[in-house]
UniProtKB/TrEMBL annotation:
Name recorded for this polypeptide: M48 family metalloprotease
The species this protein was found in: Mangrovicoccus algicola
Occurrences of domain Peptidase M48 (ranges): 42-227
GO MF term list: metal ion binding; metalloendopeptidase activity
GO BP terms in the entry: proteolysis involved in protein catabolic process
Example of a GO cellular component annotation carried by this entry: membrane
């Protein structure tokens, strides 16, 4: 087999993982996709990304809907942090330390080497559903999901995701340098690692996932502490980061936990923005839309230019079938954040709910814009297909329905709709080519499934 260049190899690995992961439904965890949460993460990560020379959208920080403690990188395009770890950390500097450590695996070439190892070990097929962005599991939620499939080939996954102690030590040092250059106290790295100290004597089944993929030793922890002392403390102004970290934990925790827990964690006496946002979500989860807005409105009054507050109000209204509130809230959010795909997707959904020709046409334009920025949201693709159908373009409706089924790993349905799209679109048109690609991929996957049986 011809030897691949590094860039080509990474592209091939990413493509293989995406295709393979589309087939995994039963074992899929989900990515928590929410514009407000991701903006908070971007704000928190910005100083570290900048110091690592990785800012500019090339690497995203994504939340995995899993309450265990873990973080990892796969292909150099994203840092994945489990929700449980975010909620367990006590300071934004600790989250920045987690991000810095994972970024160091990228900048130090560890991911590239693991890709080369995967090729040399013949693991492309063995990665069998290793990791990739797939289906929307929480469709219709403000925290809309995209599946992150964990494969059945555990040994292959371990080879790809696991790091050696040498790699971990190198990532510790590089990550702490990123923190120091950003003005963040590098001792936060030691604080994070202390969470996992003492677990090495436990059986693997009782260890946190982070420890299994990031081997930790007491010597390593001592080295981290010593290096933090060499770098010295930093005192950068973290006020903005502190604010968004509080909002991140409040919204994420309120969404994932029971309302009773949220009300205990954020009592009525807590008049912070984070506290009000958390209670707003808790009230919504109890079916109290008016009470949810009563918590949210004072924050909106203080921060009227915050698109993510308007989006949250609009989503609560949409879910409560209050379109008179949902439409103006989403319009305001989209005006303030015109390039945010999840905000645009929400506006498109609300416009479709109006049921007029004018709003259907507007929904089509809005959802096209959302898709051009993020094509991996099956809920948005469903709404886009509906908008095409309502505006008299059935072939394009079939195309986006096929894309949605492909993302969900439902290849027989994807084939049906992709073939309809091919039959109805001009040969060689961009939509025709996409439909043909889906047909080719679906036929290959269907054949592979039969072979695996």
């Amino acid at each position: 087999m011809a030897k691949l260049g590094t860039a080509s190899l990474l592209r091939r690995l990413a493509a293989v993982m995406v295709v393979l992961c589309l087939a995994s439904g039963a074992q899929a965890r989900s990515l928590i996709r929410d514009a407000g949460l991701e903006y908070a993460l971007d704000t928190i990560a910005l100083p570290v990304m900048t110091s690592a020379d990785l800012w500019g959208g090339s690497v995203r920080v994504m939340i995995v809907n899993d309450m265990s403690l873990n973080a990892f990188v796969v292909d150099g395009r994203a840092v994945y942090v489990h929700a449980g770890l975010i909620l367990r950390l006590s300071t934004p500097a600790q989250l920045q330390a987690v991000i810095a450590h994972e970024l160091a695996h990228i900048t130090n070439g560890h991911i590239t080497r693991r890709s080369l190892n995967a090729e040399s070990a013949g693991l492309y097929s063995g990665l069998g559903l290793a990791l990739g962005v797939t289906a929307g599991i929480l469709s219709g939620s403000p925290v809309a999901g995209a599946g992150l499939a964990y494969g059945t080939a555990g040994s292959a996954r371990g080879v790809f995701l696991g790091h050696t102690r040498e790699e971990e030590s190198a990532a510790d040092r590089s990550g702490m340098r990123f923190l120091a250059r950003a003005g963040i106290d590098p001792s936060a790295m030691a604080e994070v690692m202390t969470l996992f100290a003492g677990q090495e004597d436990m059986s693997p089944s009782r260890q946190d996932a982070y420890l299994r993929s990031h081997p930790l030793s007491r010597d390593r922890l001592r080295a981290i502490r010593s290096y933090a002392e060499v770098l010295g403390p930093r005192t950068a102004d973290q006020a903005m980061v502190d604010y968004w970290f509080a909002r991140l934990q409040a919204k994420l925790g309120a969404y994932l936990r029971d309302p009773d827990y949220t009300f205990r964690r954020y009592p009525a006496s807590d008049l912070s923005d984070a506290g009000r946002i958390a209670r707003s979500l808790a009230q919504y989860k109890m079916g109290r839309a008016q009470a949810a807005w009563a918590e949210l409105d004072p924050v909106l009054a203080a921060r009227p230019e915050d698109a993510y507050l308007h989006e949250l109000k609009g989503w609560i209204a949409l879910e409560s079938n209050r379109m008179d509130v949902a439409l103006p809230a989403y319009r305001r959010a989209a005006k303030l954040a015109p390039k945010e795909p999840q905000v645009l997707a929400g506006l498109g959904k609300v416009l479709l709910a109006q049921g007029t020709k004018a709003t259907d046409a507007e929904a089509l334009a809005v959802l096209q814009s959302a898709r051009s920025r993020d094509a991996r949201d099956p809920g948005m693709l469903r709404d886009l297909a509906m908008a095409y159908a309502r505006t008299g373009e059935p072939a394009m409706a079939s195309l986006h329905t096929a894309e949605r089924y492909a993302l969900l790993g439902e290849y027989e349905d994807a084939l049906i709709h992709a073939r309809r799209a091919v039959a109805g679109l001009p040969v060689g048109a961009p939509g025709w080519a996409r439909a043909q690609d889906i047909i080719d991929a679906a036929e290959r996957e269907t054949k592979n499934r039969r072979t695996r049986r």
